[in-house]
């Protein structure tokens, strides 16, 4: 596994998200707690809304366009909606955010 | 049998325990020389906190006294520092001379870390480690006006603050993180702890970065924080961490990392030298809590007597010594996939319990207020017990496993004298009495007994008593709860935020018993609004609790781009402003430029990355955000009025601009649109706005509650006033009343329909004192919020950029 | 621990009685009169209605009451008290929520020798604790200082008890440790202090402090037992969390990590503390067996909070 350092956890506001541009599109990093970050695709499978702009609560995020809710742990849409976003392995080491480079290059089209 | 010579450097808790165990295992086998830099023998350092507070005396915490040393053949060299260890010659040299050893145990402990900020070496800056420090603090308490600042809101710092407080000192705790004891507690428990400390009269400042210690004549006089605040103090205590004391070991040639390297037998890199306590590093770990030190001491004693023993790092738990704060924490709350929380809150008793579960095993626990069964839960963590069968009842502890808890059954089993409503002292029997006398609805019970008539937290319980008594004849009311996180309605929550003085999100989650750790996308924006409306100085708007438009201060379009609308006060602009807008449209390749119904211009299709730059450019031209996206004041539509129009009775444009400049920036329950027409022809369409003012010869007709969206409503007259100043006053008071009372997302007309125009009139028209008070509160809130968000956000431009751009990296 | 030469010490509190409601009246259910038979006889045959006499006043006014001059007051056993040399009394009501369970009455004798203090603290209009009243024996200067001292939340012994809502024991009140009224305490010879909350219906805070001097101690052994459900679960047991004894020294056991203490536990009905736990009432006893070695008189006072018994404060003479 090759881990890519993309930034420091304090660059992401608590219960906020920042985006990392990759070859396959934008990956959003969601900071759900003081020391907890999840990485997932930024694009909502419904109508392409930017998930990084949604409200983060517990370990979930709500898409700002039509309120689909996704679990950041599994990537699956909650409630009555059916859909899935890609999640990516992420490590937190001494405050640095490390994304799995192999997972980013292996991703198939969602 | 000749005794072996043992030299022990350091008389702390680990060393004391080791000597005890050693003398139990091999009595009389060792001739011990015990050095201690502190001028005293072994004592329970952890109990220094109750000594500080006066709850214990020093003599009570001494663990080994002169008698004990004499009885166990220990030669004491207290107050004497060790200056060198000769590993080859096997001697230890102290200030008063050298002594030879067969075996050596280094227990030099740790030294408190002093942050090397300017002023750290002033007289009056101390750490909190030994009896000298404790006595310094006790001495300062002899001065009735003494002020002490404690840097460090961890275990030690808080115990120092609590002890000082009991002695009567004015104490302030300064902590870098956003909540206290962040290594052991999550935010919710940190909030409860903070509340308990504030309740004791201790001032707590979190998220506070210390910059410099200020002195006068070589003595400390104040602490300066990063934000410029000066905290005056006569003594400054630094409790920010400890570092293993390794200098002696390192100088003598032993292997040293962060601490003295030891193996599982507590042996150092020299076969005749052991180390125990806070000075060691075992498997990369250093130690600050006592339980592992005692384990190490036992292992070291066994190693010295030739028995086999192995030190194993185990799960640790922490407990706070502060009287009245029951706190237990163990395990791990760090990030990870696949972790689940079980949260239990009992706001009336100030109880918060959280378990962190991963793969059917409890990996972490935080308990505040109720630490029953903490050892049972600790056992689950340590033993990695599979809890899948008891997940649903796990949080209730070992006595509740296997039972299912039916709340109705619990209520039915309550005795008649069980208190249901604490505020009014109403017991179950009284409520049942009222029901038997004919009360069948909540309001009837409330009217007769006063139960649930004050703070309202017992309403659910009252309803359960009614359900138990009346059975199916009682219909539990279906008031819409805010969302799935709670059973309370918006009205309940608003009322409780005011009556219980809840001033932070954590206060709401905890005191109102939210079932999620931090709400959801439905309730959090509402709670965020209610808090900032009721407590403008104590609570700040949280961008992460706002919908994306309000957070980014621009409207998101369906393709992910944004629309940017600068303000045009009262619909009036200038050639320079128009030029600035046109230039921005060119520079940022804005595809669409549109004139809006709100009498201003919209730039549509701006990329998120360009937002800070376009704002900056518009700011330079003197323009600010038009808040076209916010739940706040949108526009004040005007018609030309007396200045130019032959029908104009008053200066409607001027009034409109004044109103816009007064009201802009403030957050409201939903968007607010105003209109000011210069005469009853109403060219500004004022009568379908939230507040519409129609100017007439004799003054101004202020009306409210209009709408022209999905619903079309005409405004109703609030009042007719003679002067412009009074029109502004009435409008401001109405807006503030709306802000303080309406349900989040209710437009003005919806809210007026709910509360009735008569009530609104009684609050702002008839009652001049109340009107003035509302205006004062609005002004106070505006001191915080009446400013351009674009300017602020343009300064943080980098947060609008992606965190990283991997497309620029070479192919992996 | 050094063993203090056991000279005869005069206890500050001469008599302790427990009054319980029977129907609408309070009757004396137990008492330690330490030989004052005349006063004992007078008490055994008296009963009080709500509002009547000292115990009745504590009940009707729902607060602890200090009475220092029996003549011409509402005190009813004045003659008997005079004969026994008793001149001051403190009545401590024991409420569980709004229900009165009992009133503990302690009586003291006025003379130039005995010093100690029994104080009742409550809040004033500025939300600070002030002295409601107190009995000080011969410690006049200390009394003066106390009457002019206010405690904010968390400060000093009364303020600490108020903020934490639990009993607190403080050692070494005199010079050497800067207790807020230290120098006056030192001069009066007051060495140890115990403070505890007295819950009353309506919730106004009342804090009682007993300050003890070496020569005329309130007691020579104090104990604080924790019986809260949050600590002990539903067992009804209590664990000894703090205490100081002239003979045995410190009575608490805490290794520092709080998890593995082997502190003594009391179960309902077993032993004197167990009697307090089982009945929920104050217990006074004078006997030669069943008490810690060297003591023959005991007073145990329950504190009821949050629907259950939360603490027991005990002292031994």
UniProtKB/TrEMBL annotation, chain A:
One of its GO terms (biological process) is nitrate assimilation. Keywords: 2Fe-2S, Iron, Iron-sulfur, Metal-binding, Nitrate assimilation, Oxidoreductase. The keyword Metal-binding applies. PROSITE patterns: RIESKE (PS51296). It holds the Pfam family Rieske. The keyword Transmembrane does not apply. Its EC number is 1.7.1.4. Signal peptide: none annotated. One of its GO terms (molecular function) is nitrite reductase [NAD(P)H] activity. InterPro entries: Rieske-like_NirD, Rieske_2Fe-2S, Rieske_2Fe-2S_sf. Residues 3-99 form the Rieske domain. NCBIfam families: nirD_assim_sml. This is Assimilatory nitrite reductase [NAD(P)H] small subunit. The gene is nasE.
UniProtKB/TrEMBL annotation, chain B:
Siroheme binds at residue 683. Its EC number is 1.7.1.4. It holds the Pfam family Fer2_BFD. Residues 557-620 form the Nitrite/Sulfite reductase ferredoxin-like domain. This is Nitrite reductase [NAD(P)H]. CDD domains: NirB_Fer2_BFD-like_1, NirB_Fer2_BFD-like_2. Belongs to the nitrite and sulfite reductase 4Fe-4S domain family. Residues 631-770 form the Nitrite/sulphite reductase 4Fe-4S domain. It comes from Flavimaricola marinus. Binds 1 siroheme per subunit. One of its GO terms (molecular function) is NADP binding. Residues 420-467, 482-531 form the BFD-like [2Fe-2S]-binding domain. It is an enzyme of class 1 (oxidoreductase). It comes from the Bacteria. One of its GO terms (biological process) is nitrate assimilation. Keywords: 2Fe-2S, 4Fe-4S, FAD, Flavoprotein, Heme, Iron, Iron-sulfur, Metal-binding, Nitrate assimilation, Oxidoreductase. Residues 5-297 form the FAD/NAD(P)-binding domain. Its cofactor is FAD; siroheme; [2Fe-2S] cluster; [4Fe-4S] cluster. Pathway: Nitrogen metabolism; nitrate reduction (assimilation). Residues 317-385 form the NADH-rubredoxin oxidoreductase C-terminal domain. [4Fe-4S] cluster binds at residues 639, 645, 679, 683.
Automatic annotation (TrEMBL), chain C:
Gene3D superfamilies: 3.30.450.40. This is GAF domain-containing protein. InterPro entries: GAF-like_dom_sf. It comes from Flavimaricola marinus. It comes from the Bacteria.
């Amino acid at each position: 596994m090759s881990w890519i350092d993309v930034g420091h956890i304090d660059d992401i506001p608590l219960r906020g998200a920042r985006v990392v541009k990759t070859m396959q599109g934008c990956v959003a990093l969601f900071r759900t707690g003081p020391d907890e970050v999840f990485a997932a695709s930024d694009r909502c499978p419904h109508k392409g809304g930017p998930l990084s702009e949604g409200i983060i609560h517990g370990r979930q995020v709500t898409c700002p366009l039509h309120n689909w809710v996704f679990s950041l742990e599994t990537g699956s849409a909650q409630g009555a909606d059916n859909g899935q976003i890609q999640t990516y392995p992420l490590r937190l080491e001494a405050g640095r955010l490390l994304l799995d480079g192999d997972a980013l290059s292996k991703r198939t089209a969602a | 049998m000749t005794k072996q010579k043992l030299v022990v450097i350091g008389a702390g808790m680990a060393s004391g325990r080791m000597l005890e165990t050693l003398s139990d295992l091999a009595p009389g086998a060792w001739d011990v020389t015990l050095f201690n830099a502190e001028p005293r023998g072994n004592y329970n350092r952890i109990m220094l906190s109750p000594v500080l507070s006066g709850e214990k005396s020093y003599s009570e915490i001494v663990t080994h006294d002169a008698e004990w040393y004499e009885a166990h053949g220990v030669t004491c060299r207290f107050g004497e520092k060790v200056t060198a260890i000769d590993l080859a010659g096997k001697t230890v040299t102290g200030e008063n001379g050298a002594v030879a050893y067969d075996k050596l145990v280094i227990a030099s402990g740790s030294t408190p870390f002093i942050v090397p900020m300017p002023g750290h070496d002033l007289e009056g800056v101390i750490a909190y480690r030994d009896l000298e420090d404790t006595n310094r603090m006790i001495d300062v308490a002899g001065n009735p006006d003494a002020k002490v600042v404690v840097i460090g809101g961890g275990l030690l710092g808080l115990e120092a603050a609590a002890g000082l407080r009991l002695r009567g000192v004015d104490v302030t705790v300064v902590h870098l993180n956003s909540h206290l004891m962040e290594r052991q507690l999550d935010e919710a428990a940190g909030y409860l702890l903070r509340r308990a400390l504030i309740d004791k009269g201790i001032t707590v400042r979190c998220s506070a970065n210390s910059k410099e210690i200020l002195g006068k004549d070589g003595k400390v006089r104040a602490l300066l924080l990063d934000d410029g605040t000066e905290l005056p103090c006569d003594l400054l205590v630094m409790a920010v961490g400890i570092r293993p004391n390794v200098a002696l070991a390192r100088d003598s040639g032993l292997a040293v990392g962060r601490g003295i390297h030891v193996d599982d037998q507590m042996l150092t890199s020299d076969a005749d030298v052991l180390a125990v306590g806070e000075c060691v590093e075992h498997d990369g770990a250093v130690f600050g809590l006592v339980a592992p030190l005692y384990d190490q001491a036992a292992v070291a004693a066994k190693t010295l007597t030739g028995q086999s023993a192995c030190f194993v790092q185990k799960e640790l738990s922490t407990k706070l010594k502060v009287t009245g704060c029951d706190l237990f924490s163990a395990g791990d709350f760090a990030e990870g996939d696949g972790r689940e929380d079980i949260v239990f809150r009992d706001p009336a008793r100030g109880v918060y319990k959280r378990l962190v579960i991963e793969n059917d095993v409890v990996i972490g626990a935080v308990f505040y207020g109720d630490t029953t069964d903490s050892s049972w839960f600790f056992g689950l963590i340590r033993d990695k017990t599979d809890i899948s069968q008891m997940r649903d009842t796990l949080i209730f502890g070992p006595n509740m496993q296997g039972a299912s808890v039916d709340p109705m059954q619990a209520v039915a089993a309550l005795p008649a004298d069980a208190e249901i409503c604490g505020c009014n002292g109403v017991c179950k029997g009284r409520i049942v009495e009222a029901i038997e006398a004919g009360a069948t609805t909540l309001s009837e019970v409330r009217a007769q007994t006063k139960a649930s008539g004050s703070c309202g937290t017992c309403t659910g319980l009252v309803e359960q008593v009614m359900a138990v008594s009346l059975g199916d004849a009682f219909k539990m009311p279906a008031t819409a709860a805010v969302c799935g996180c709670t059973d309370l309605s918006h009205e309940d929550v608003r009322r409780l935020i005011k009556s219980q003085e809840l001033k932070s999100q954590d206060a709401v989650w905890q005191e109102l018993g939210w079932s999620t750790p931090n709400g959801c996308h439905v309730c959090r924006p509402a709670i965020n609004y209610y808090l900032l409306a009721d407590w403008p100085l104590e609570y700040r708007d949280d961008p992460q609790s706002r919908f994306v438009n309000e957070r980014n201060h621009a409207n998101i379009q369906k393709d992910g781009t944004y629309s940017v609308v600068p303000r045009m006060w009262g619909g009036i602009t200038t050639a320079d402003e128009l030029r600035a807008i046109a230039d921005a449209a060119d520079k940022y390749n804005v595809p669409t430029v549109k004139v809006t119904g709100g009498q201003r211009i919209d730039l549509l299709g701006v990329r998120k990355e360009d937002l800070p730059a376009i704002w900056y450019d518009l700011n330079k031209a003197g323009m600010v955000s038009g808040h076209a996206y916010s739940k706040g004041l949108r526009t004040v539509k005007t018609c030309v009025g007396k200045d130019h129009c032959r029908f104009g009775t008053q200066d409607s444009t001027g009034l409109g601009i004044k109103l816009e400049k007064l009201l802009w920036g403030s957050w409201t329950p939903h968007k607010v649109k105003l209109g000011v027409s210069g005469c009853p022809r109403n060219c500004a369409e004022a009568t379908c706005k939230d507040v519409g003012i129609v100017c007439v010869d004799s003054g101004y007709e202020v009306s409210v509650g209009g709408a022209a969206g999905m619903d079309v409503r005409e405004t109703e007259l609030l009042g007719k006033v003679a002067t412009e100043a009074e029109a502004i006053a009435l409008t401001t008071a109405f807006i503030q009343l709306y802000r303080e009372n309406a349900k989040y997302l209710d437009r003005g007309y919806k809210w007026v329909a709910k509360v009735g125009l008569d009530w609104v009139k009684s609050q702002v028209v008839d009652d001049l004192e109340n009107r003035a008070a509302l205006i004062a509160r609005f002004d106070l809130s505006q001191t915080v919020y009446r400013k351009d968000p674009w300017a602020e956000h343009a300064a943080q431009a980098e947060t609008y950029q992606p965190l990283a751009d991997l497309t620029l990296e070479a192919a992996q | 621990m050094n063993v203090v030469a056991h000279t005869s010490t005069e206890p500050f509190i001469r008599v302790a009685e427990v009054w319980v409601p029977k129907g609408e009246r309070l009757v004396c259910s137990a008492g330690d009169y330490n030989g004052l038979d005349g006063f004992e006889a007078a008490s055994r045959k008296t009963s009080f209605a709500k509002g009547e006499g000292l115990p009745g006043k504590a009940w009707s006014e729902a607060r602890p009451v200090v009475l220092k001059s029996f003549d011409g007051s509402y005190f009813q056993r004045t003659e008997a008290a005079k004969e026994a040399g008793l001149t001051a009394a403190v009545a401590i009501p024991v409420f569980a929520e709004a229900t009165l369970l009992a009133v503990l009455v302690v009586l003291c004798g006025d003379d130039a020798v005995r010093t100690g203090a029994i104080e009742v603290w409550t809040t004033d209009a500025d939300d600070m604790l002030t002295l409601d009243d107190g009995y000080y024996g011969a410690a006049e200067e200390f009394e003066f200082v106390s009457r002019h001292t206010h405690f904010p939340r968390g400060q000093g012994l009364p303020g600490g008890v108020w903020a934490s809502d639990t009993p607190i024991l403080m050692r070494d009140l005199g010079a050497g440790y800067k207790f807020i009224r230290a120098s006056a305490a030192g001069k009066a010879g007051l060495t140890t202090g115990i403070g505890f909350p007295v819950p009353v219906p309506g919730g106004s805070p009342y804090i009682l402090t007993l300050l003890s001097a070496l020569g005329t101690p309130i007691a020579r052994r104090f104990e604080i037992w924790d019986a809260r459900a949050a600590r002990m679960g539903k067992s009804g047991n209590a664990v000894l969390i703090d205490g100081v004894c002239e003979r045995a020294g410190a009575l608490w056991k805490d290794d520092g990590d709080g998890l593995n203490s082997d502190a003594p536990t009391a179960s309902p009905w077993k032993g004197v503390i167990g009697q307090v736990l089982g009945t929920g009432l104050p217990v006074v006893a004078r006997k030669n067996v069943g008490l810690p070695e060297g003591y023959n008189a005991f007073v145990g006072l329950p504190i009821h909070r949050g629907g259950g018994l939360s603490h027991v404060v005990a002292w031994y003479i």
